[in-house]
Write a structure and sequence with these properties.
- The structure is a homotetramer.
- The first copy, chain A, has about 350 residues and is an alpha/beta fold.
- In chain A, a hairpin with a 2-residue loop joins strand 1 and strand 2.
- In chain A, helix 5 crosses helix 6.
- Chain A is globular.
- Chain A folds into 2 domains: about 210 residues, Alpha-Beta Complex (Quinone Oxidoreductase, Chain A, domain 1); about 140 residues, Rossmann fold.
- In chain A, strands 3, 4, 5, 6, 7, 14 and 15 form a 7-stranded mixed beta sheet that branches.
- Chains in contact: A-B, A-C, A-D, B-C, B-D, C-D.
- The interface between A and B is large, with 46 and 47 residues.
- Strand 13 of chain A pairs antiparallel with strand 13 of chain B.
Chain lengths: ~350, ~350, ~350, ~350
């Protein structure tokens, strides 16, 4: 049996690079050689035991690489094609997918499964490995356009898709004011997305000056440091009655609440964060339910068409996503990479991992 | 000075029928002779001091009547025209109105005002009176089609408009499953709206059998008594993975929470209730923010085009709204009417008040 | 080799019942035993040579039946399950499908193919046969709910899906006025769809009194015979400035033009017809391009979720579709059925064919 | 009586600068001192007698200026405020406006009027004059943000609003491919709008190299000269199956047809042109009505909120609209300006007229 190296979750706090069997693609599957991947905040949660996965699982959900082998029935692709696959791998054939909500995919069944579209490094082996098996390959293999390097597209599978989805679900349109709370990679991506979608007043909020500077390069018109001023008050001053859309990119009660306080009557809070503890809706900011507010949450959209669109944004040079990849490690040093990323040392944004 | 009788809020717990000056319409206004009006749950909150209005205000926001006089500049109407006016009276000319959100109207200004469209019996004198002054009359006077009696259209200004808006904001479409929590007049109207909008599984929830029976007549396919069974579990059984849309028509933490627990991943909670106390989002039912859920609130849409559409529903006999008007009082007995309505005696749904 | 009987297109004007090989399902496919099917106007066009298909093809695209065999990889279904399949069989995994437009499916490829979703009886063998091979079965097999007979659901695969799509693409909403030109099976289905979607003034136009009577039973509020009056003028009289939406269900210049003349400024012409000859936009009715008009065309949506929704309409008894099946023939007499249907004799609407 | 100078339509081919009475604002109106205006292609059509207006009418519909006087009832504005007003002046209070379609405004009535929102220089006196009377001022006066010069905002009333509306009505979203046929001022504005709305492949088509160069500066990724190549073929090559959206910005049969031939199945033709002669839909490019195509037309949206949004685009420096103003004339030389503009001499794009 062929073997390969993979980053395996062992137990809370412990990740190990192990030799595991190299998979063989079955019907409708593809085997992808991973040439570049990265670490997500979610992976850190898994490592810390805050999000449960089974012991022995290979983690990671952001693969760039090339097709190593194709299972029966996968058409239109060839071994060697350079491809990416989204973090979310919709089947395209279940009730959720056929309803346009592939992130809640039930894998062909007649239903919806909460977060069911997220399989890599969650319910099946992920891509922090030399190879990864791609399910429903026909719907998920996305060819990389000529002229784009691996580093150019590494943020498409999750970061860009998630960040942009906040803008899309929020219904941002030309002339909108948009505030984005938290400027980590996903918040920065939402900031870029707001700019690309036509918002004309984009306010980025964080407390780390380096991130606020990056926010400007991604398209923010104004940056606010919440440690230095009352940001909700300043947002009201800048927008008049509040922003049209507020994006939550952290997953905490204070940022959620600030979002709701920042939007105008009739405004939208578009939420990306993963909440823990509790989530309260402040009734004063909510007009007791009579303010025509919308709160919408979105899980990273996937599928090859989504990836194609995001790569077209990169190819058209609409925003400098490559700047967010601040560090690089070989797969053999992935544990050091986790350590750097988890502790947010050295101004790290995203870490490239090269198998 | 001409005088008229009006139901005036005096202080917490005290409403009085008083002689007050009959108003004269200024530019853009109309004076309406009220021939029928009704009492809303909100009026009861005002009477109890739970929603603050200034002492001396005439309350009530659901007028049916005819045009008594037109102020300068109001075109296309004649004295004597039978009309209704929505509970919400958008100006049509402010930023909110021009953005399609008249319920958050700022009265011509360049902004949005939370609940600003609700003026009758809130920020200006209302219609539990012999006459009511209609602001922005050009945008708000809606002619009653021939063949419809006052009783036919009395629920259009608020009850129908609010109930239907839950269905519209929830994006209900042909083949959806919709659950409506609470079958008071607004919930019953949402039930009817869901039927009229094409939902094919409409589940009405309440604990009062009379209301559940009425819900069936309004269009519910299934009725559930939450005192007799675990309704969330039953909704899951009936729908598979949960309803497409859940409508909250009460304004309490338990009903809000049941809504969120009743919808499928990717589903919508469409909220009409006025919340007090607190509002907590249960994270398990919310997939911690990753379930593609939407929570949307709507305040009763107004304006003459809205009223025209709702009256067309009545004229086309799409639902038996007239059945909801269970009692009738002359204006002189309005205090007795409040007493009956506030205590929900005698199977009361809505009370007709005749000035 | 097992054989079966199938209605095969031989040449222009000639259809033949032949013995052909019974297919075996490959990966992702299913073999369906057909228990009921029907003839579509499109099949008549094929027979007349007006729409080209290759000689030897089995025609028909509206199958009701049960699963005879499942190919590798199809999950969640069992042999014997009662199912229908839509006339359009989207793969769910191509760019078109992942963009929500399965009717223009490119079968897994990275693109769109005009009418590519229509395969049965067009580019692959159809279902006027004892058995039919279902492509992309995971996305297309739709279980029939308990309690519904074959006759109840026979119009779901094409007629209902097409008719309702006019209403959906037209954006019909509560309180709209809708006019439907031509009351054949698809027009009647559009009429029913308009009623189910909340239109409050539904005007059905045809010249055959039997069809106009049926239109009333499907939900029309008003029926107009274009041989007896100027229907555009009457529509204007009934609606004021024109209908919100006009549905074209025939495919001729006069009906298209009447649609455009019947809608108000800002209105929508929702077109289902298959046009031949030419199609001219009358500039006077089009305000020379400045009337905010929309013309939208829709090809019958397919897929199992679509079928599930349509069957839920039937199960909820929202419209009497079964009445449209006016005649019944065994497969052995399909040539007689074509003859009756093509000549519109004996008040035929739709013909049930029983293999 | 105070008099003022105004450019008056006398008869076909004849425009005259005349002394006419300076108007006084009535209820709901405002008098605006015009400090800058421009000439539109439509004005040239009027001058040539191709679009009929009554003799003696002051033409022009793109005013920049300041408030000279306010009629009774206009709130929130002061004499001296710098403002613009859209070419289309919706009342905000009629059925069309309350339905969100102010361009088809019926001026308070219960209906829609084709092109009814276009009043300046069409049904009431326009703004190629020292002063212009603004109807429904509350809905239409839009304050110019500090820091913007008259020249910065002169294209907002019509050119930008029209060009951007093609993008909005076309539903352009992040990652779309958009082709814009004709790069006059409105086409160039559509090109800019496509860029601002997130399209990632914007193809501008014209035959004048100067316009194609300007198109690049407005945001086009690719420019095509239709005299030098088969543009439809090249668009297909660049996009795969065709563009997602094609924008018609000229109003001719060939450009309309090229649009339809350029879009993919399921694509949208968004039309801005004013057609004369005839308009034919080529059935081969239209898949005979089965290609899920949409054809949508849009008349320039107006109102103060629209103007506010467009000026926010200018203030945020999202596109170099000021470059399009290539020439400047005093009002006294407006006839020379018409002559230059009508004959498209000297590379003229838009002409500034200073009263």
């Amino acid at each position: 049996m062929d073997m390969m190296r993979a980053a395996v979750f062992v137990e809370k706090g412990k990740l190990e690079l192990r030799e595991v069997p190299k998979p063989t693609p079955g019907p409708g599957e593809a085997l992808m050689k991973v040439t570049l991947t990265t670490i997500c905040g979610t992976d850190v949660h898994i490592l810390k035991g805050e999000y449960p996965v089974k012991a022995g699982l290979t983690i990671g959900h952001e693969p760039v690489g090339r097709i190593e082998a194709l299972g029966p029935g996968v058409r239109g692709f060839a071994v060697g094609d350079r491809v990416i696959v989204g973090a979310i791998t919709p089947c395209g054939q279940c009730r959720a997918c056929l309803s346009g909500d592939g992130a809640q995919c039930s894998h062909g069944a007649d239903g919806f499964e909460a977060m069911g579209g997220w399989r890599f490094g969650n319910t099946i082996n992920g891509c922090q490995a030399e190879y990864v098996l791609v399910p429903d390959a026909q719907a998920n293999l996305a060819k990389i356009p000529d002229g784009l390097a691996d580093e150019d597209v590494i943020l498409c599978p999750d970061i860009m898709s998630t960040g942009f989805s906040a803008v899309e679900s929020g219904g941002v349109r030309i002339g909108d004011s948009v505030v984005v709370f938290a400027q980590g990679p996903i918040g920065l991506s939402a900031t870029a997305g707001a700019r690309i979608a036509g918002a004309t007043l984009i306010i980025a909020v964080d407390s780390v000056s380096r991130r606020l500077e990056q926010a400007k390069r991604m398209g923010a018109d104004v940056v606010l440091n919440f440690k230095e001023q009352d940001v909700v008050q300043e947002i009201k001053r800048l927008t008049g009655d509040g922003a049209d859309v507020a994006i939550e990119a952290l997953g905490t009660q204070p940022t959620f609440e600030s979002c709701l306080r920042s939007v105008r009557p009739g405004g939208v809070v578009s939420s990306l964060g993963v909440y823990s503890g509790h989530l309260n809706v402040p009734l004063d900011a909510f007009a007791a339910g009579l303010g025509d507010h919308t709160i919408v949450t979105t899980l990273c959209p996937g599928g090859k068409e989504r990836m194609r669109r995001l790569m077209s944004v990169i190819a058209a040079k609409r925003a400098p996503f490559r700047e967010l990849v601040t560090h690089s490690f070989p797969l053999s040093e992935i544990e050091a990479a986790y350590d750097l990323f988890a502790h947010q040392r050295d101004g790290v944004m995203k870490v490239a991992i090269r198998p």
